[in-house]
Each structure stands twice: as structure tokens, then as C-alpha cells.
Q: What sequence folds into this?
């Protein structure tokens, strides 16, 4: 019985529990719902939650833990030399589970019976072509040991699944039964449901937090792995970024400085574009624009925020780059020859700035609108003009929020990838010229991880160190932004 | 009682400062003020009383054209200050508001230091030639608003850190620092405790020496305490206007009598 059937059974029990408990509650009050402690629905909901929540939680936990348990159980039977190397072990285990899945598939399609499977001999028959016949392609022939392990893997999985189904159903049944049994007219179902909802909400909130923690840990382990293969000071203070690929051609230079320089340079250009434009449009929209203008202009501006960044990248590559080249290039309008190709820090920075305009303007607009009307009245009442009021009262009052908005935009800029990949070029350079091609941390993470490098060389693992550093920088920026917003917010009222 | 009579006599000899004729105010389709004509005298405290929503605050805000900042608001009729029509197209509302100061219901100090709050008006209107002149203006305004002694040691502390009553006196200081001729007060004590209210009322009485003060209030006791003239508004109409003593002791209109005896409102 697959997991979806179990899910359906649990849902059915949930529904049954709902109606049973509801009916029982109403019956215990002699049909007069005024005598009930809670509304009838609450008794039903209570039973439904008791049936569904523990069973589903158990199902999830089981589905996560079972493969891990079977993996460690099976891997004990692998040869010691395979188990010693983490990469080899995971590769072998992946092969085995693939063969096991293939065998299950073959049985399900009738290509082989269960009895034949038990007697299957890796030497005598071609397991690879058998599995290929049911659509599971293997990279190599299956040897006798893998076949054995795959068979026991499959057996363990099957037993586990049956056990899982039984236990989950029992839990659902027990939950429902207990909830229905304790239902009577004085049972405080409403309070129980209230608590249950609280726990559901807490669980939902913890998913995001646990994910963050998970991301951090996966970065940390790989980063530590990287630093065990590559010296940390060469990484942080190296001024050259010249990775050699596929482990050929000797040592790589994996200096962080040219990448962070490119990141900061491009982000700075983006902020120089986005902050004044975004702020001014926010001011116009919140203070000067009439209602109809605002109703049209604000959504239009926010459409910019909905454009995928890859489209901005294309815009940079096809429009802005050539345009800048026409102006600053060798035969350009200014004749200055600062720019040798369409991809440059300036190209990416300008386009990224445009992308950030709605980000800055939308946040600043909200913040400016949050300045109490009493401040404006006070200033107008003293004979100040609109722009004097703005400059001397509203902006100072909104400043902490605006700074926060700018810092959030900055962390967006630092993390931006696609615009840089397409607009800024791929050369890591420590150049001061904004019209030179540059690259950023994020773009290099992409280029180090795409391709078929294994996750055991410094050239690929460096991506995690880069990601970790970037994460720390943007985290620090975000914390700083929040701190500023909190620190100065009190002075409003 | 005798003092009171003398001050009443002073009042009657004073010239007209603000004169409104047939003022109508509309908020969209809502006719908020109907045919209000009133003459407010110089160096007098005039109180506007009436039940909530009767239009007294709206009318007050017409006097310094604060209603201009509300899109849907439309004002008809003439309001003259010193014989000059303030709704004339030649009049700059920004200049007008420097001449007609306003204090609001809720204390609204800017998120700046006490000094900068008071110096705000003089700075934007260029009233001081140098720093020491500005210092003098700030000190004078704070002294006139009877808050100097409380804040003189912390002029550069934020104005928002003061208590409610101090904040309101700071706002009064801010309003008089621009040397207005008329001071409009929109329920200046409604957010204050009785002690702070008493201080502000005392202050209003002193300000009468230099300014024409118009105060909107919900408290009839307050109107009786601080004003020499009282106008009673009801449903957008000016029902009765006259000497405060007379309004409170022998009102002519039955509606006024009902209101001050607590039967309507």
C-alpha cells in the first residue's frame, strides 16, 4: 500500500472522527446545543485533529527516518575499504538503492516474479538489461554482492513500509477513539482546539527557522571541508581567482578578494542608481501625487519588482551593454575608450539598480506614509512649504526606516546572480574602472558548481566557502538594518 | 468680578482682527459649515464651543487655510484678516500660516531637539540673522510658553521625551516663535491632565496681551475660564456669538441654552 493510500485512510478516519464526536456531543446534551460547553463543531474538530495530527506527524517522521536506518543497516555489509571513504560509500549506497528501486519496479510491471527475484543470480542473468527493460538505466553491470544488498534493501524497505502503514493507522484510530470517548457535553473541546491550533502555528513557524539552521549547517560542513584542503589565508587574502578545472593543470588560485571587490563595486553602482531614484519616487508618490496618479503609478512601479532577474540580465546583455559601449567604447560617442566590451560592472550595476528601484521606493513609501499626519500638520501650521516639511520633518522622522530599506536593498544587490552572470562578464579582476568586466561571488558560485566536477576538490568546495562568506555578510547587513530600524524607531511618537 | 468687568470693557474697544462673511465649507458633498459670519476681535480669547461634529474645528482650520491640505475640502465666502481676504489668489497660504499660528489637539513635537523644535519656524522664515539672535528667539518663546525653567538645562534633548503637558507648551512655544498675529488652538488641552490643563489655560490668558487667540474646546468650563467671547456652533451653523458671560448666563437661542445646560451635545 503506497503512502498516498495511508494518507487517504487517515483522512477518512479524520472525517469519521469529526462526525462521530460531533454527534456524540450533541447526543450527550440531549440534543440541546445550549447545554454544550463548546459549539458542536469544536467537538468534531477536536476528534479530527486527534486522529490526523499524531498520525501524520508519525508518517512524516517515519518516511524521513526509515531510509536513513536502512542505509546504515545495509552499509554495514559493504566492504571496509568502501565504507572508509565517505564519497565512495554514498556512491555505492546510491547504486544499491537504485537497483532495489529497479527490482521493485520490475516486480510491479510483471517483468519478474517475486520467486524468480529471490533466485536471481547476478552471474547467470543480465540484471542490467532486465532493469533497462523496465526503464531503470544503470551506469554499470550489477555484481553479485550489490544484487544481494539490493535484495535485502528491498526486503527491509517493504517490511518497513508495512510496519509503517499499520502503526500509522493504529495511531490515527487510537487518537480518534480516545477523542470520541472523552467527548461529552462538559468536555472543553474549544480550549483543546485552541491549543492544537497554537501548536500547528508554532510548527509552521519552526519549519522556516529549522530550514535556515539546516542551510547554515550544510554550508558550515562543506566550508570546513574546503578549508581542510585549501589554506584559509590564501582564500581570504588571495588577490587572484584562477581555478583550474577537473583537477588538471596543477594548483588553483582561489582568492576571495577579486570576487568580493566585484560584488561590492557592482552593488555600490546599483545602490547609487536605486537609492536616489527609489527615494524620490517614493516621496513623489506619498507626498505629492494625487490619488488617481498614485493609483496608477504605484502598481506600475511595483511591476518592476515582479520581473524575473534573468529578464533584467537579458536587458543588460542586449540593450544596456551595447548602449554603454556606444558611449564609452573605443569608437563611442565620447571617444574615451574606457570600455572594451558590453559586459562590465557598470552594465550590471545600472540594471541591478533599476531592479532595486521598486524595492527601495515601495519600502520607503510605506515608511513615509507611516509618519503621523500630525507631523505634517504641525509643520504646515508653522508656515512651512511642502518640500521644507519633507526635508526637515518627514525625512528625519522616516530616516531609520529608510536606512533599513536601503540596507535590505543592499543585501539584495549583494546576493543578485543572474544580472551579473549576463551583464558583468566572467573575469575576476581587481579593477577600479567601472567599465571593466568583473564578476561577483554569486556568479562564481554558479560557475564552480555547474559542470560535472565532483564534490571533493577545492575547486568545487570553494563554492560553499563563498556562499558561507556571502551569507555572513548579508546576515550582518540585515541585522544591522534591523538594529537601526529598532534603535531609532522610538523617537517617532 | 470687578476685574472681569474691566476686561470686558477693554475687549469692546478693541478692533476687529478676523472677519468672516457667509463662509461655506464642503467636504465632498457634505456641507460642513453653513453661512457662518463672525467678527473676532484683536487681543481677545474667543472660544468656539459646540457638540462633536458641529464644524468648529473645520471653521478654525479655515482661518489659516489648513483645509487646503485636504483634497476634497472646498471653502466659499470671505475671511478677512486685518481687512485682507485670505482666500484671495494673491495670498500665499504658506505666508498666511506664518502669521496665523496653530496649536493642535494632540501635542505634535517634531522628532528633533527642544531647541530645534522652537527654532523650526524662525529658521524657515529667516527671522534670525545669526545664531545668538536665534538663541534669543528660542529663549523668549519658551519663556512666553512658561516652559523655559523646565527645559533650559536640556534644550538639546529630544522634544518627544517631554511629558504631555510640557509637549503641548513646547508646541505653543513653537507656534509663537514665528511671531504670529493670531493663534489658533484646536482643543489644546484635550490630551492633557488637569494640572497641565491649568498651566496651559493660564498661558492662554497671558498670550491674550499680544495675540488674538481663537480656541476650540469641548469643555464649557474651559471656555468660561479663558475666553472673553464665545461662539456656539451647532450642525454647521453659528447659533450664537457674544460675550462669554452672557452666553453662559443668559443665552438668547434655546439651542445654546440646551447645550450649556447639558441637554444636547
A:
Amino acid at each position: 500500500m503506497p503512502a498516498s493510500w495511508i494518507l487517504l485512510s487517515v483522512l477518512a478516519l479524520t472525517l469519521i472522527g469529526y462526525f462521530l464526536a460531533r454527534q456524540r456531543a450533541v447526543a450527550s446534551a440531549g440534543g440541546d446545543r445550549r447545554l454544550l460547553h463548546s459549539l458542536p463543531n469544536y467537538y468534531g474538530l477536536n476528534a479530527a485533529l486527534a486522529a490526523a495530527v499524531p498520525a501524520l506527524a508519525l508518517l512524516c517522521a517515519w518516511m524521513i527516518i526509515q531510509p536513513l536506518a536502512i542505509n546504515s543497516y545495509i552499509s554495514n555489509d559493504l566492504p571496509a575499504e568502501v565504507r572508509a571513504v565517505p564519497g565512495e560509500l554514498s556512491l555505492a549506497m546510491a547504486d544499491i538503492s537504485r537497483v532495489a528501486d529497479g527490482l521493485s519496479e520490475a516486480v510491479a510491471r510483471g517483468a519478474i516474479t517475486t520467486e524468480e527475484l529471490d533466485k536471481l543470480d547476478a552471474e547467470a542473468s543480465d540484471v542490467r538489461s532486465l532493469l533497462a527493460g523496465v526503464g531503470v538505466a544503470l551506469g554499470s553491470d550489477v555484481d553479485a554482492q550489490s544484487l544481494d544488498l539490493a535484495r535485502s534493501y528491498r526486503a527491509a524497505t517493504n517490511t518497513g513500509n508495512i510496519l509503517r502503514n499499520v502503526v500509522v493507522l493504529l495511531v490515527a484510530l487510537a487518537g480518534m477513539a480516545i477523542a470520541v470517548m472523552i467527548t461529552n457535553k462538559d468536555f472543553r473541546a474549544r480550549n483543546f482546539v485552541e491549543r492544537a491550533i497554537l501548536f500547528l502555528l508554532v510548527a509552521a513557524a519552526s519549519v522556516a527557522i529549522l530550514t535556515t539552521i539546516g542551510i547554515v549547517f550544510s554550508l558550515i560542513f562543506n566550508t570546513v571541508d574546503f578549508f581542510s584542503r585549501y589554506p584559509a589565508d590564501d582564500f581570504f587574502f588571495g588577490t587572484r581567482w584562477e581555478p583550474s578545472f577537473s583537477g588538471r593543470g596543477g594548483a588553483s588560485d582561489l582568492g576571495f578578494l577579486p570576487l568580493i571587490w566585484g560584488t561590492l563595486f557592482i552593488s555600490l553602482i546599483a545602490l547609487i542608481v536605486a537609492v536616489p531614484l527609489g527615494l524620490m519616487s517614493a516621496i513623489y508618490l506619498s507626498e505629492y501625487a494625487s490619488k488617481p496618479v498614485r493609483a496608477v503609478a504605484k502598481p506600475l512601479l511595483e511591476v518592476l519588482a515582479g520581473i524575473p532577474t534573468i529578464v533584467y540580465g537579458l536587458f543588460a546583455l542586449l540593450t544596456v551593454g551595447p548602449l554603454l559601449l556606444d558611449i564609452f567604447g573605443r569608437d563611442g560617442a565620447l571617444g574615451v575608450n574606457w570600455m572594451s566590451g558590453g559586459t562590465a560592472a557598470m552594465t550590471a550595476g545600472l540594471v541591478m539598480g533599476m531592479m532595486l528601484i521598486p524595492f527601495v521606493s515601495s519600502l520607503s513609501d510605506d515608511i513615509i506614509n507611516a509618519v503621523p499626519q500630525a507631523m505634517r500638520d504641525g509643520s504646515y501650521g508653522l508656515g512651512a512649504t511642502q518640500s521644507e516639511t519633507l526635508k526637515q520633518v518627514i525625512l528625519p522622522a522616516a530616516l531609520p526606516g529608510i536606512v533599513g530599506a536601503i540596507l535590505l536593498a543592499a543585501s539584495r544587490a549583494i546576493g543578485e546572480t543572474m544580472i551579473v552572470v549576463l551583464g558583468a562578464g566572467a573575469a575576476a579582476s581587481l579593477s577600479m574602472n567601472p567599465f571593466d568586466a568583473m564578476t561577483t561571488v554569486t556568479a562564481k558560485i554558479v560557475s564552480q558548481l555547474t559542470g560535472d566536477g565532483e564534490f571533493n576538490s577545492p575547486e568545487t568546495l570553494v563554492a560553499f566557502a563563498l556562499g558561507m562568506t556571502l551569507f555572513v555578510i548579508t546576515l550582518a547587513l540585515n541585522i544591522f538594518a534591523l538594529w537601526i530600524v529598532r534603535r531609532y524607531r522610538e523617537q517617532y511618537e | 468680578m470687578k476685574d472681569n468687568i474691566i476686561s470686558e470693557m477693554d475687549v469692546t474697544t478693541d478692533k476687529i482682527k478676523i472677519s468672516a462673511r457667509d463662509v461655506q465649507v464642503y467636504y465632498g458633498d457634505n456641507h460642513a459649515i453653513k453661512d457662518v459670519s463672525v467678527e473676532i476681535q484683536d487681543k481677545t480669547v474667543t472660544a468656539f464651543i459646540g457638540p462633536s461634529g458641529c464644524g468648529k474645528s473645520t471653521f478654525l482650520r479655515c482661518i489659516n487655510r489648513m483645509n487646503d491640505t485636504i483634497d476634497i475640502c472646498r471653502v466659499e465666502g470671505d475671511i478677512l484678516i486685518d481687512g485682507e481676504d485670505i482666500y484671495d489668489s494673491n495670498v500665499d497660504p504658506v505666508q498666511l500660516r506664518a502669521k496665523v499660528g496653530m496649536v493642535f489637539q494632540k501635542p505634535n513635537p517634531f522628532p528633533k531637539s527642544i531647541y530645534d523644535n522652537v527654532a523650526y519656524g524662525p529658521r524657515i522664515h529667516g527671522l534670525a540673522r545669526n545664531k545668538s539672535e536665534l538663541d534669543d528667539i528660542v529663549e523668549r518663546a519658551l519663556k512666553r510658553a512658561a516652559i523655559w525653567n523646565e527645559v533650559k538645562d536640556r534644550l538639546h534633548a529630544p522634544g518627544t521625551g517631554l511629558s504631555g503637558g510640557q509637549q503641548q507648551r513646547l508646541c505653543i512655544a513653537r507656534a509663537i516663535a514665528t511671531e504670529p498675529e493670531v493663534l489658533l488652538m484646536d482643543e489644546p488641552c484635550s490630551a492633557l491632565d488637569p494640572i497641565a490643563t491649568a498651566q496651559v489655560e493660564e498661558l492662554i490668558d497671558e498670550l491674550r496681551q499680544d495675540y488674538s487667540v481663537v480656541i476650540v474646546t469641548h469643555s464649557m468650563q474651559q471656555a468660561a475660564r479663558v475666553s472673553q467671547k464665545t461662539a456656539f456652533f451647532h450642525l454647521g451653523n453659528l447659533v450664537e456669538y457674544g460675550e462669554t458671560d452672557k452666553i453662559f448666563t443668559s443665552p438668547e437661542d434655546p439651542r445654546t441654552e440646551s447645550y450649556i445646560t447639558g441637554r444636547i451635545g
In short: The radius of gyration of chain A is 31 Å. The beta strands of chain A are 241-242, 253-254. Residues 3-187 of chain A form one domain.
